[in-house]
């Protein structure tokens, strides 16, 4: 049974004329709460990208018309405690030339790991460059890696 957009705004009950059957059409909207936001040059040295953290990582851009457009959304297994951007500096030397001029996303999670992530344009997702074990898994307040700060110098 097809339902128009006007009818979709609320739950409707319908009766079929020939057999008395009832149908229920309901629209489910995905609720979201953005926990953290960072800005960087993840796709290229000239791109202006924004990453939202909800229960996933979502890379978005703001179009010329001011509308937010999703580039990719990637599920996260676990809880992101904190994240920051490691901005590209000329003195950095990466083994991979595709990473030249692009920022890295630095994430601390409940796994106890500090992860450096790069964005892969071909796969449209973030991939780990490296992981560093900081503490045991969990969310205790006195554990190393609860909060993250990056020195821009």
* Strands, count: 10
Profile the largest sheet.
4 strands, antiparallel
Number of helical stretches of at least 4 residues? 1
Unreliable residue runs: 1-17
The spatial strand order of the largest sheet comes to 3-4-5-6
Helix content: under 10%
Q: Could you spell the SSE succession in H and E letters?
A: HEEEEEEEEEE
Give the amount of beta strand, in percent. 35-45%
Mean pLDDT: 79
- Distance between the first and last residues' Cα: 61 Å
Our Rg estimate from Cα atoms comes to 21 Å
Give the CA-based shape. globular
Structure class: mainly beta
Descriptive report:
By secondary structure, the protein is mainly β. Helix content is 3%, strand content 41%. The protein has one helix spanning 5-8; strands at residues 12-15, 22-25, 36-40, 49-53, 56-62, 68-75, 80-86, 104-109, 113-120, 125-133. The strands form three sheets. The chain has a four-stranded antiparallel beta sheet, with no helix packed on it. It is globular and about 75 Å long. The chain starts with a helix and ends in a 20-residue tail after the last strand. Residues 1-17 have low confidence and may be disordered.
Summarize the structure.
The protein is mostly beta strands and 153 residues long.
How are the elements arranged and paired?
Blueprint lengths: L4 H4 L3 E4 L6 E4 L10 E5 L8 E5 L2 E7 L5 E8 L4 E7 L17 E6 L3 E8 L4 E9 L20
Antiparallel strand pairs: 1-2, 3-4, 4-5, 5-6, 7-8, 8-9, 9-10
Name the features.
153 residues; mainly beta; four-stranded antiparallel beta sheet; globular; disordered N terminus
């Amino acid at each position: 049974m097809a339902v128009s957009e006007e009818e979709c705004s609320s739950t409707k009950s319908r009766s079929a004329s020939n057999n008395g059957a009832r149908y229920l059409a309901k629209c489910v909207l995905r609720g979201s709460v953005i926990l953290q936001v960072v800005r960087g040059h993840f796709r290229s040295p000239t791109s202006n990208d924004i990453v939202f953290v909800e229960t996933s990582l979502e890379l978005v851009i703001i179009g010329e018309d001011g509308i937010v457009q999703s580039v990719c959304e990637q599920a996260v297994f676990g809880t992101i405690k904190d994240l920051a951007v490691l901005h590209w500096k000329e003195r950095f030397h990466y083994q991979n030339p595709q990473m030249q001029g692009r920022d890295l996303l630095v994430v601390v999670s409940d796994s106890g790991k500090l992860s450096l992530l790069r964005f892969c344009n071909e796969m449209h997702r973030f991939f780990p460059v490296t992981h560093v074990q900081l503490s045991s898994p969990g969310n205790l307040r006195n554990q190393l890696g609860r909060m993250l700060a990056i020195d821009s110098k």
